[in-house]
Amino acid sequence: MRTRFLTRVLAVGVVATLAAGCSGGGEPPSTTGGNNGNDGLSSNVRLQDEAAPAGDPKPGGRLRIMIRLDANELDPHRMSETSAFVINEQIYESLVQSYRGEIKPAIAESWEQSADGLTVTFKLRDNAFFHSGRKVTAADVKYSIERIQDPATRAPRARSYEGIASVEAPDERTVEMKLDKPNAAILTLLSTAASSIVDREVVDGEKGLNGSVDGGSGPFKLASRVTGQGIKLDKHTQYWEPGVPYLDGMDFTFNPDDNARAAAVRSGTVDFLWRPAPEFIDALKRDEALKWYGGSGSLSLHLRLNTSKAPYDDVKVRQAIYLALDRQEILNVANSGFGTPLNAGYLPPDRFGALTEPVYDKPDIEKAKSLLAEAGYPDGFEAKLMVIATSAFQVRSAEVEQQQLAKIGIKVTIESVESTIADTKTKSADFDMYQSGFGLTYDPDERFTASFLAGGGLNYGNWTDAEYEALVVQARSELDADKRAALYQQAEKILAERGPVAMTFLNADFDVVQKNVMGYQGDPTPTYRFYRNIWLDR
């Protein structure tokens, strides 16, 4: 017997955060958290209200978007950078899509799950076309999921797909996905950009998807790419959703200079400034020529330790470092106080599965020194802390951490590198410490599996903990929401107490646009697929 699968995402705990995240054309207005810069709490609530329509969406025009850094990898199955997700969510589409806590149809117009939870059958829509002009088929879905699972692809999130036993295509519009065991996170996983369905003929012909041709079926297609300078996307005229997208195209430009980005949106050179630097947020909010959205956090920042080498393989050394950090000070300096200090695990306190009580409070320098002495480092040691040179908030975070760790005798040298170098060094475990961060995901499983399980593509330094892994794997198959949350809370405590990362803070994101940019309907999970509904009132 088969039952229609619920389209509501259960047990992911995003409702409170979503309600505090954004407002946009056609959606009810909502509040958001700016920040007072002192206590990490929401304040300074003000959002533009576009609930009253400015008229019917106008087709045409090109949206000029500026973000900080170009993506090193545009293959949706191999990407890990936030900028790649921003761009690829316009180019690629998955079987289903997530939006504000709900799973909705995408390439699949419907789906059913068997009574035992081990088979999910998707029915593909008949009017989904790749940018090559070829119709999306079940064979492409099978190819895409198997490509993600193939070790040769080196997909960072491959371990999240290990519970998919097989994917079959009995006909062009039917996909049957067999699971090893029930999976509470499966639809959420299949809604992500990392699960993009790709054109198998393009992939095989181009030998990859990081060049000048894409293999997507999303609302926009890759028109041109100049590495480090710009990416142009053109409207996909065969997109399945009637009338969408409204824009003729999107023009992405990249600039790591925080001053230059803020000046560009104020001068009208760009229409959409993605995540301005925190020190410019208040001034941009006051600019009457602009609109702003945001306030919810979507990026969980951390200090990553390489547990594959001494002394970071010693849990006492890691705990000493975690106890020495003042997370509120890091937030205040690095992000002008916009956000929430993370004194426990990866998840902020309002998310499903999160710890609500801190594991770390104010720094405990004496206890940290004692732990270092027990580990055989009574006088501390020297360490290198790698940061991406063009990321101002990373550099500021590292500078604060450098001063804080000096109090327990750890002499930190900051190593500033380009993003491509950082990518190479982390993947080869050639680092001591790394100032980094991970975007939040609808369901904890995707992040925990990729970032903290053995063999996870984002588990730099390959930290392993049998108890942690058992909890995460068990939670994936637990269909009772309360029991699943309790498993994640146990896992989060392990991560905080003996894991490879010192969580520091959850940032608060803002987007700033010109007054004639309409239809912004953000989702701070984050997802950027709502860009297809943006239009220009010109």
Explain this structure to me?
It is a single chain. The radius of gyration is 23 Å and the shape is globular. Among the domains are: 70-218, Dipeptide-binding Protein, Domain 1 (Dipeptide-binding Protein, domain 1, Alpha-Beta Complex); 299-507, Dipeptide-binding Protein, Domain 3 (Dipeptide-binding Protein, domain 3). It has 15 helices and 24 strands. Strand 18 (381-388), helix 11 and strand 19 form a beta-alpha-beta unit. Helix content is 27%, strand content 23%. With 538 residues, the protein is α+β, with helices and mostly antiparallel strands. Strands 11-12-13-4-14-22-15 form a seven-stranded mixed sheet, sandwiched between helices. A six-stranded mixed sheet has the order 17-21-16-20-18-19. Helix 8 (315-324) packs antiparallel against helix 10 (365-374) and helix 9 (327-335) runs antiparallel to helix 11. It has helices at 15-19, 82-91, 138-149, 186-190, 200-206, 258-267, 281-286, 315-324, 327-335, 365-374, 392-406, 419-427, 444-452, 466-477, 481-498, and strands spanning 2-4, 34-35, 42-43, 62-67, 96-99, 102-105, 108-114, 119-124, 164-171, 174-179, 220-226, 230-235, 249-254, 272-274, 290-294, 299-305, 339-341, 381-388, 410-417, 433-439, 501-507, 510-514, 517-518, 535-536.
Major sheet: 7 strands, mixed
SS class? alpha+beta
Distance between the amino and carboxyl termini? 53 Å
Summarize model confidence as the mean pLDDT: 88
Shape: globular
In terms of per-residue confidence, which ranges show pLDDT below 50 for 5 or more consecutive residues?
1-52
GO molecular function: peptide transmembrane transporter activity
Pfam families: SBP_bac_5
GO biological process, one term: peptide transport
Region (Disordered): 21-44
